[in-house]
């Protein structure tokens, strides 16, 4: 492979980092999805930008947004990444049996789903499980996923949705914070700093209603 060929073919790690940051508009969310540190993802993006000789993200705004070059690059590589995922899964399923590609929220996966996997594997030993953590909304066709356990509305693109359960989200604080600020009713929270979850941008407004 010539040096030019190597320059035109970035590493899959860099491409995966670019794809994740582009979808989440966040280095931290991309890092969580990829099980990497935020610094590692940032270095992958910096190396990719240096290799291509172009800035792919605008980092000056509140969110990490794609530049014109970044949007064009994402549009070009997305079909290729989807093809690679599909080809890999096809070979794996042919060699080892049926494959189930499942996405879920990170906390739900670690606290509820993963502890129950051994029982599933014992009952269905021929099914290969491939997991992916996702925070925001995603496209099933482009991601090569079969199913997802996620929060969202029934108008999810390219998917048939089945309602599982209501979600209960409640504000929490330490006993010391509660005592210090004399919180006795919901309106008391309006004068205090509130932390938001990236995956629940409307949680506070919904709770106050």
UniProtKB/TrEMBL annotation:
It holds the Pfam family LysR_substrate. PANTHER family: GLYCINE CLEAVAGE SYSTEM TRANSCRIPTIONAL ACTIVATOR, HTH-TYPE TRANSCRIPTIONAL REGULATOR. GO terms for biological process: DNA-templated transcription. GO terms for molecular function: DNA-binding transcription factor activity; sequence-specific DNA binding. Keywords: DNA-binding, Transcription, Transcription regulation. Belongs to the LysR transcriptional regulatory family. Gene3D superfamilies: Periplasmic binding protein-like II, Winged helix-like DNA-binding domain superfamily/Winged helix DNA-binding domain. Residues 10-67 form the HTH lysR-type domain. This is LysR family transcriptional regulator. The keyword Transcription applies. SUPFAM superfamilies: Periplasmic binding protein-like II, Winged helix' DNA-binding domain. The keyword Ribonucleoprotein does not apply.
């Amino acid at each position: 492979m010539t040096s030019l060929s190597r320059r035109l073919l970035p590493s899959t790690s860099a491409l995966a980092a670019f794809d994740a940051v582009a979808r989440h508009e966040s280095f931290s969310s991309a890092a969580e999805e990829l099980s990497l540190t935020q610094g590692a993802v940032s270095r992958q993006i910096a190396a990719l930008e240096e290799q291509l000789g172009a800035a792919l993200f605008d980092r000056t705004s509140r969110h990490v947004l794609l530049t014109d070059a970044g949007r064009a690059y994402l549009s070009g590589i997305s079909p290729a990444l989807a093809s690679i995922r599909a080809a890999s899964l096809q070979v794996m399923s042919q060699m080892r049996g049926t494959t189930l590609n499942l996405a879920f929220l990170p906390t739900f996966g670690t606290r509820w789903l993963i502890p129950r996997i051994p029982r599933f594997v014992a009952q269905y030993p021929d099914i290969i499980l491939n997991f992916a953590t996702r925070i925001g909304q995603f496209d099933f066709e482009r991601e090569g996923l079969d199913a997802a356990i996620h929060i969202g509305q029934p108008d999810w693109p390219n998917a048939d949705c089945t309602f599982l359960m209501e979600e209960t989200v409640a504000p929490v604080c330490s006993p010391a914070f509660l005592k210090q600020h004399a919180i006795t009713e919901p309106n008391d929270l309006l004068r205090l700093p509130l932390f938001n979850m990236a995956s629940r941008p409307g949680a506070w407004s919904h709770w106050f209603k």
